[in-house]
Design a protein that fits this description.
- By secondary structure, this protein is α+β, with helices and mostly antiparallel strands.
- The chain folds into 2 domains: 43-243, CheC-like (Chemotaxis protein chec, 3-Layer(aba) Sandwich), CATH 3.40.1550; 261-322, Surface presentation of antigens (SPOA).
- The protein is built from 10 helices and 11 strands.
- Strands 1, 2, 3, 4, 5, 6 and 7 form a 7-stranded antiparallel β-sheet that branches. Strands 8-9-10-11 form a 4-stranded antiparallel β-sheet, with no helix packed on it.
- Strand 3 (101-108) and strand 4 form a beta hairpin.
- It is flat and about 135 Å long.
- The relative contact order is 0.12.
C-alpha cells in the first residue's frame, strides 16, 4: 500500500505535537454516575391548573355580601378583604393552619360535592364576645379541648351566614344549595380529602375594630372541574340580564305550545272480519264499566285519571289521580 505521509512529514507532525504547535483533541474522562432524583408530578401540575375566571367573580360577590351580612349580625362595622385565589395541595394547606382552628364541612347537594369553611379562633371569639356585649376581645386557650356548646352555637350561626351568602354569590353562575354537615378541630379527622389532592383556597381577611382575623374556604379541585364549563367565563351584568330575558321568552313560548289531550272512555280489540261487518246500530263492548275512571292522555301518554261529569252545561272530566 502506498505511504500517505513521507518520513519528513511524520517527523514534522510529531515535533509539532510535542511542541504544542498543533492543537489536539483531548480525550474526555468518562462521565460520573449521577443519581436520579424523584419528580413530584402532582406538585408540578398543581400550579398548572386552569384558571377559572368565574371564581373571582363569585368570591368578589361573596366578600361584599358577607361583609354586609356579618356587620348586620354583629351590629358592628366589619371589613372583609378578599385575597387572591390559589391552588395548593391539601396536605400542604393543613400544615399552615394554626391551633386553635375550626373546620366546618358544608355539603353542596346539587353540585354533588362539598367545601370546607375554616374560621380563625379570633374570629369566633370576636363574634362571641361582641354578641354578649364585651368590648375587649381575647382568645382563650382551647388546645386539647373541644369547643363548648355556646361556642358551637356561634360557629353554627356563622356557617349559616356563610352558606346563605355563598348560595347568593354562586347563583348567576351555577345554582348551589349548601347544607352544614359537621365541624372538626383537628384537620386529620377530615378524611374526605386525600392528602395529595389539589384544593382551591380563598382567604378573606376580617377586621372587627382593632382585631384582625380570617376566614378560608377550601374546595377540592375535582368538584370545580366537574362544572368547569360554567366557570371558564366571567358573567357580566349585561349577560345576566340577557339570559333572564331569554329564559323568560323561552318559557312563554314553551307554555304556548299546543298539546293533544284526549279522554279515553274505553278500548276494544277485534278481528278485521268483525270490523268489516259493523254497520249503523252495531254495539261495541269496551274494556271497562261506566263507573270506572277515565284515562286522560297527553300526547298519547296516560298522565291522569278522572270521572265523567257535566261542567257549565258541557261534558267534562274531573282529574282525580296523577299517573307518574
Amino acid at each position: 500500500m502506498e505511504q500517505v505521509l513521507s518520513q519528513e512529514e511524520i517527523d514534522a507532525l510529531l515535533h509539532g505535537i510535542s511542541e504544542g504547535e498543533i492543537e489536539t483533541r483531548k480525550v474526555e474522562a468518562p462521565e460520573e454516575h449521577k443519581e436520579a432524583k424523584s419528580f413530584d408530578y402532582i406538585r408540578y401540575t398543581r400550579g398548572k391548573k386552569e384558571r377559572l375566571p368565574a371564581l373571582d367573580f363569585i368570591y368578589d360577590r361573596f366578600s361584599k355580601s358577607f361583609r354586609s351580612a356579618l356587620s348586620l349580625f354583629m351590629e358592628k362595622e366589619v371589613e372583609v378583604d378578599l385575597q387572591p385565589f390559589q391552588y395548593v395541595g391539601y396536605e400542604d394547606f393543613i400544615k399552615t393552619l394554626p391551633l386553635p382552628t375550626n373546620m366546618n364541612i358544608v355539603v353542596t347537594e346539587n353540585l354533588k360535592g362539598f367545601y370546607i369553611v375554616i374560621f380563625d379562633a379570633k374570629m369566633i371569639f370576636s363574634v362571641l364576645e361582641t354578641v354578649f356585649g364585651s368590648t375587649n376581645i381575647s382568645v382563650p386557650k382551647i388546645v386539647g379541648r373541644e369547643f363548648t356548646k355556646i361556642e358551637f352555637n356561634v360557629i353554627k350561626k356563622l356557617i349559616d351566614l356563610v352558606s346563605a351568602e355563598m348560595e347568593k354569590a354562586w347563583a348567576p353562575v351555577y345554582e348551589i344549595r349548601c347544607k352544614y354537615s359537621r365541624s372538626e378541630i383537628n384537620p386529620n379527622y377530615i378524611t374526605m380529602v386525600a392528602p395529595e389532592e389539589t384544593v382551591g383556597i380563598t382567604e378573606f381577611n376580617i377586621e372587627i375594630g382593632d382585631m384582625t382575623s380570617w376566614v378560608k374556604i377550601c374546595m377540592p379541585y375535582g368538584i370545580l372541574e366537574s362544572i368547569k364549563g360554567y366557570l371558564i367565563a366571567t358573567p357580566s351584568r349585561e349577560d345576566m340580564e340577557m339570559r333572564e330575558k331569554w329564559f323568560g321568552r323561552l318559557k312563554a313560548r314553551v307554555l304556548d305550545v299546543p298539546i293533544d289531550v284526549r279522554a279515553v272512555l274505553g278500548r276494544k280489540k277485534m278481528p278485521l272480519e268483525e270490523f268489516l261487518k259493523m254497520s249503523d246500530g252495531s254495539v261495541i263492548a269496551v274494556d271497562r264499566y261506566i263507573s270506572d275512571p277515565v284515562d286522560i292522555e297527553i300526547q298519547q301518554n296516560t298522565k291522569f285519571r278522572g270521572k265523567m261529569g257535566i261542567f257549565k252545561g258541557n261534558k267534562a272530566i274531573r282529574v282525580e289521580e296523577s299517573i307518574n
